[in-house]
Amino acid sequence: MLRPRILDRVVAELKAEGAPDTVLTAVDDTHLAWEDGPDGPVPAYEARLNRQQLPKRYRETGAVLGAQRHAVQPGSRIGKRVGLVLMDPLDGIDIDGPDDWLMAEAALGQRRIAFWVIGNARQGLGHVTRVMTLIEGLSGHHCRIFCEPDQTLAIERLRSAFFPVVVVEKNARIAALADFGAHLIVHDELDTDASTICAEKDAGYQVVCFEDAGTGAEEAHLVFNALYAADESEPARGRYFGPSVYCLRPEFRGVQALDCRDQVQEILVTFGGTDPSRLTYQALTALQSVSCHVTVIAGRGFEPYEELEERCSALRAGGMNLTLVRDVPLMSELMRRADFAISSCGRTLYELAALTVPTIALAQNSLELKHTFASAENGFVFLGLGSQVRPEALEAAIGSLLHSPELRRSLRGCMAAHDLVAGLERVTRSMLELT
Fold this sequence. Notes:
It is built from 13 helices and 18 strands. It is α/β, with parallel strands linked by helices. 38% of the residues are buried.
């Protein structure tokens, strides 16, 4: 299990100023321990504490022993001053029996996967959500998430969900990857450049890109984009598009969709984590005369949130049956209760489709106009670029879904035709096959 970078660290320790006589590889083995005594087991500790509070104790791995020339003597290579280079527990496996062999075999199958992700007020948190989903689908592999310092929304979201994230400056990327010992690099950054991807390939890494509109996508080994048309896929070049490669979040797997009701009771409005085009306000204006309940979801990055609160309060004062919620922990529960939804053309459409919720789709920007999943054949009423949609067109679309259970059933049937559960396994398998 020895990696070249461990040897490099041992050599660096031996060459450093004031270097020790001998350098050993070890793993942290701090635990409550017992030893044989004359009358039975006795504690090998002074005070019984939680493991984290015990004095550090290290176990030699036997992987590397490095010594200065003068420290190599008959019968010993251990000098007076000793230094330790710590290894990861799996890297430090020593095979002394069948159980160790099983652990080593499993460890050899483990891959180190580095994720570069963005999350900010402009691009929202969809990229972060997918990375968290991918990591959950890569159980058993060592994954690490990297962000540049300006991606504050991503860093905050990942840490709040207990995903370790490393903040790295752009010019220190390759060094951070080498320190991690990555086998595979995954970019969920929307706009990579070719020089970045080529530098990673030249360093010997396999590279995967998700929804990448930059020049780097042409250089990557694998590219996935569930939002583009499936017939544009090029398997021979590792380019896979369409619903079959959508990575559905675990919370949507196995959720039972409600039956189609004759009367609409619940309408959902959700425009992603930030809603940069303020489409939520357009939807509220078009819905202010409906009598059923409306739920509005504002994402974590929606700003200024206070303005939206004031708008919703005014509508409620005018008699609208309206609830505003923010940063919902379980989106599937709110989505499944909706008779139809109004949303933008990002990844949320796949989640709505998984729960067969007919949806009016408005594009946030010109890039979302390329997201071909937002079509009638897939169960959506697509109205085009949101900023250019006339109020009467949006009101007409709402009216057609509001008063036609037949239309809603037809759109639900189109959504149900897609198997969106298998995509995550399909994508993670293709990624691991690269390594």
